Predict the structure.
Amino acid sequence: MQINETKNEGLSREYTVTVSASDIDARVDTRLQEVGKTINLPGFRKGKVPLTILRQRFGKSVMGEVLEAAVNESSSEVVSKNELRPAMQPKIEIESFDEGKDLVFKMGVECMPEIKEMDFASIELTKYKAKIEESEVDEALERIAKDFRKSEPVAKARKAKEGDVVVIDFKGSVDGVEFPGGAGEGHNLELGSGQFIPGFEEQLVGAKPGDSLEVNVTFPEEYHAEDLKGKAAVFAVDVKELREYVETAIDDELAKNLGLDDLDQLKSNISERLEADYDQFARNRTKRQLLDALQEGHDFEVPAGMVEQEFDSIWKQFEQAKEAGQLDEDDASKDEDELKAEYREIAVRRVMLGLLLSEIGTKNNIQVAQDDLNKAIMNEARKYSGQEMQVMQYYQQNPEAMASLQAPIFEDKVVDFLVEMAKVTEEEISVEELVKDPDEAESKPAKKAKAKKAAKKATSKKSASKKSSAKKAAAKK
C-alpha cells in the first residue's frame, strides 16, 4: 500500500492511497476460498471447487465486499501510521479501480485540535442565591386553588361574561361542508381561556342558555390541520347552560385533595419546590459564566465539518420555529444572511466548548456511573405514565438513545469539577435578578415577569412558552 499526503493545512489532511492489484487479487482469492468451503456445486465435492471456477462464478459478487474491506483497513492504517485523531469519519472518494488494476482512493480527514488548557483556578464565578418570600408561596397557593376551582350553574338568569363557563353544542363547517373534529356536545368552555380559535369565545360573551347563534372565525395560518389553515369557518352553536366558578378555599382540605396532611405541609412543599427551581436557575447562571470564561480563555481551531453539522442542526430548529410561527421579535426582524452568520458563531462556540469539556473530562477520568444513567432513565420514564417499562426498555436497547442521556450528565460532571477549581463568590439576590436573562437589557420587565412566573410554577404541571428562540437556547451552552 502506498500513502501520499496531498494536503496538510490546519486540522485538514488529505491522502492519496494506492492498494496494489496483487493485494486486491490476493484478498479476492482468500475470500473465494472461504466461500468455497460452504457451497455445493454439481460435479464437485463440498470444499473442493477449483479456485478458477469460484472466480468465474463468484468473483464479481465478492469484489464489492473485498474493496470495502480494503478501503476500511487501509484508512485505519493511514490514521495509525500518521498518528491522527480524527474528529469525524474520514471522507473516502474512489479515484480509480478496474479488475486487475490498482485501487486508488482519496481520503480526507479532519483532526482533533491540540488544546492548551487555561489555568482553571483563575476563573472567577458568582454563585447566586435567591430568598424565598412568603408572598411567593401565597401566589403559588392561589394558583393551585385556581386549578381546583369548580363551577356551578348560575343561580340568577343573566348573560354570559368573560370568566364564565358556557356549556355548548357546536358544529363547524367550511364553505358549507362540515369538517372532522369540528363538532362537539356538552362542551364546557371558559370564556377568555383561549381554548378555541381566536375570536370564537368573544362572540359568546352576552349569550344566554337557550340561545342559538352562528360564530364566524378564521383559522390561523399556523393551525395544525393543513386543510384548515387560513380558512374562514362558521360554527352553529347552541348554548345549553351557563356556569360560574366558585373559589376554592386555601385550607387543610385543599392540601388533603393533593394527598398531603395539612396546609402547613403544602406550604412546605411549595417552598421546597421554589427553592429547587431557583437553585437550578442559579446553577444555570453559574454554568453560563463558566462557559463564557472557558471560551474567552481558549483559542484553538475547531473542525469545520463538526461546525457544519452543528450549524445544520441549529438552523433546522430555527426553520421549525419559523414554520410554527414561534420566532421571537429579534430573529423575525433580521434577514436570513444575518441570522445564518449569528447561528454559525453559536455553532462554533458549541463545538469548541464540547471539545474542551470532553478533553477535560477524559484527562481527569470523569465518568458517568451506571447509577447516574439509571436515574436519568427513571426521570424520562416518569414523563410517560403507564408506559414506564417500555421507556426503560427503549433506552436499554438503543445505544444512541442511551448516549443522548449520558452526554448532558457527563457535561454537568465536568462543569462541577471546574466550579470546584474556580474562585467562587456567593451572592444573595432578588428573584427578579436571578431569573433575568443576562443577555437582555434592564428595561424589559415583561420578559422578566414571564421568566419569574415560569420559575415559580410550583405544581407538577410544566408551562411552555409560546415564543422561543433557537439562538438563545443554543447560546446557553
Summary: The domain at 2-110 is CATH 3.30.70.1050 (Alpha-Beta Plaits). The radius of gyration is 32 Å. DSSP finds 14 helices and eleven strands in the chain. Confidence is low (pLDDT under 50) at residues 441-476.
